[in-house]
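Quick one - first record:
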Amino acid sequence: MPENQVIESLGLDEYKFNFVTESEPVFRSRPGLDEDIVRQISQHKSEPSWMLEQRLRALKIYQAKPMPQWGGDLSELEATLDQTYFYSKPQEQMERSWDDVPDNIKETFERLGIPEAEQKLLAGVGAQYDSEMVYHSLKQEWESKGVIFDSIEDGLRNHPELFREYFGKVIPAADNKFAALNSAVWSGGSFVYIPPGVELDTPLQAYFRVNQERLGQFERTLIIAGEGSHAHYIEGCTAPVYSTDSFHSGVIEIIVNKNARFRYTTIQNWSTNMYNLVTQRALVHEGAHMEWLDGNLGSKLTMKYPSCYLVGERAHGEILSIAYAGDGQHQDTGGKVIHAAPNTTSSIVSKSISKGTGRSSYRGLCKVYDGAVNAKSNVECDALLINETSRTDTFPYIEIEEKRATVGHEATVSKVGDEQLFYLMSRGMDEGEAMALIVRGFIEPIAKELPLEYAVELNRLIELEMEGSVG
């Protein structure tokens, strides 16, 4: 069938990361979650008492909040949480030299291309395996300028005052049920500080790999971009396919200070048995620019809505997202922009492709508070259906409290049409090639923004073999 040919030509249904590395963790909590397990996690990390207290408060919030009834179907996840491992420690300590990483773990990341990308193209790399960062490095030229790129645990340990000032302030534990869960059991993730005026001309990157069956991964990332700084952070994720479901629930907090520019690129290509429930939010101050570039492929269910809270005058937020939903997958994605200051601007561009029994949903919020005069926002969400059985939904929420604001919203749903195919085939293409070209053209506005020239492994992650049209 032509639709199968186009998907095959794009490589979207071929999952190349379904391999398992044989490894035994040095410690793994028993299945399920209670106060004792939270205390074990904190003890293994040798945390101060105030952090343990925060974790225990967050656990109570998580236990009190009901499972969300909107978005995707979480009933199967809820039924298996008592069988999930919430913490698995793969090695005794994080390494600074790639040579010191255990061979079995190193093999996993070498197969994913991490060392190659680090050597050639990246300012720094963090690699997380199950619940812990196993490796972190930062090039000397950036370290000498005061850049901090470390595991979240070392951020707490080595920079306690800076850490405590910002941790949990952008996304508090009470924000939602899964933010509360992450706040209780977080492990791994990155701590990033870019000093004022420093501009990184190559990206930082973190890579997250879930290797074990029935494991929950709950990384926490905290990024502070100093005044006038400029940096880019890339995150990639994969997991092997198991017969049982796994669970990923990360939290990313970003503070973009006055006149700073920050871009956060996420390419998540989880296996089709992964529940991917993530909270991502940036606080954007005066004259600052925040960009989210969000790619969602794979997973059983993804619920993820990168957010920009524009709290300073002339702040700008931009969200570009692409989602692909194949058979049995539900991508419930989108973005949120909150205008809370005058002369702020934002845009959301969201594109999705649904094939087979796949379902993609755009869910977004644009809110303009009273007093945010001259705020301007534009939202575009476009969906492409490959066949008759696929599905797409749009749930846009627009809340305007300020009369002197300009907000636009546009949504389109399209199918590959007979007229398009006929035209291209009349120019010498066969039907499969014609369909592939149409799909490439549909996602090109976002695909061209993917930093493939920086991170070699992103090609393997997103599998968009666009024959030169990407990047």
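second record:
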Amino acid sequence: MSETELKHISEDYQWGFADEVEPEVKLKGLTPEVVRAISEIKGEPDWLLEFRLKALETYFEKPWPRWGPDLAELERQMDDFYYYVKPPARENARSWDEVPEEIRRTYEKLGIPEAEQKVLAGVGAQYDSEMVYHSIKEELEKQGVIFKSIEDGVREHEDLFREYFAKVVPPTDNKFAALNSALFSGGSFVYVPPGVEVEVPLQAYFRVNTEGFGQFERTLIIVDEGAKVHYIEGCTAPIYTTEALHTGVIEIIVRKGAESRYTTIQNWPINMYNLVTQRALVEEGGYHMWLDGNLGSKVTMKYPSSVLRGPGARSEILSIAFAGDGQHLDTGAKLIFAAPETSGSIVSKSISKGEGRSSYRGLVKVLSRADRARVNVECDALLVNENSKTDTYPYMEIANETASVGHEATVSRLADDQIFYLTTRGIPEDEAAALIVRGFIEPVAKELPLEFAVELNRLIELEMEGSVG
């Protein structure tokens, strides 16, 4: 990316600031020595080091995916990234006063402490490779709710952690799950005991500050029988002339009769490769929702998935993708029906502007034992300009004749007559376009907590500035 392009993009991306923070440790290169160093810094047990080293072998054995966006440039750069960067901060501070001032200022700009006070049950804040802050409300802690960094999850709850870790997304799942398994650092470990309902959300915020960096957070959430939780994730990074990499893995286990929701609002800069694996395993009578918002990044490949393993299990996947110039957002969803009376739905909304490209890639798989499974898929694309692009790649494998399966897809352009009507009512052209886009994504946005819906609408308005006319 040229300096000229960088300057132009930075004017529109208000989270593109970088902090003058000198890391304590920076590890470069994709080698067993780097993996061993990460494990040693964290003081991990031998079994976890062995897991990491085996995952690195798996990463090198698996071929690069050629079925989606072009990753050739990333493939050439893999030896150039910093794979672990330790900020100069005490890990997992319980008070913002314990976080170094220069890092605390970043989160104040992002509004995280204020949101914690007003609307959140707990907050985790990751800076480069480490969680620098983690806190949960005392009343939830007394009920046995665990909300820790992934490292504290291993140290303080090793047996529980080991029982579930990498069972939903093993390293062999795909090349980037293997990469994360070898290098993971930071992320959250959440356990909600049977019958406990966490009424307000937990949130983790992931911030990249270092140039040429790869972030590999790992999140493991266990929602025990009859429990309930909502977890929200947000992400930003500065804009640099070099590329950056984000490869996360999220594993969620929803036990019998439990309910969970995972909301992601990712607003990466245009130099970021965002390659994420998210999967939930839903047991009998359980319910899980993925609410997935994707803005920014150079390339995104992300397909939240749910495996409905128990009778009566349900899942909804709602997603938004917004692709602008120089961006290819390849997003979608997967639903696997593995038990009778299971049900699910996918609603995908994508917007492409300028020369941006959005792709929907989805899988619906109904196994032979999933009697009377029900699923409906809606994927709608909106093209803002003549040069913007969209693709739809739906896959359906139905092995049970009692299943009820519906699929519909639409592609439309931002209509000149709609813009004209709104401008005749005194609404400026950019605002009119943003208003139409907000209406387009409303079925997904309305599921967000109010504060995050407002933020999403503000981001859409920023993206739409200068898009028409």
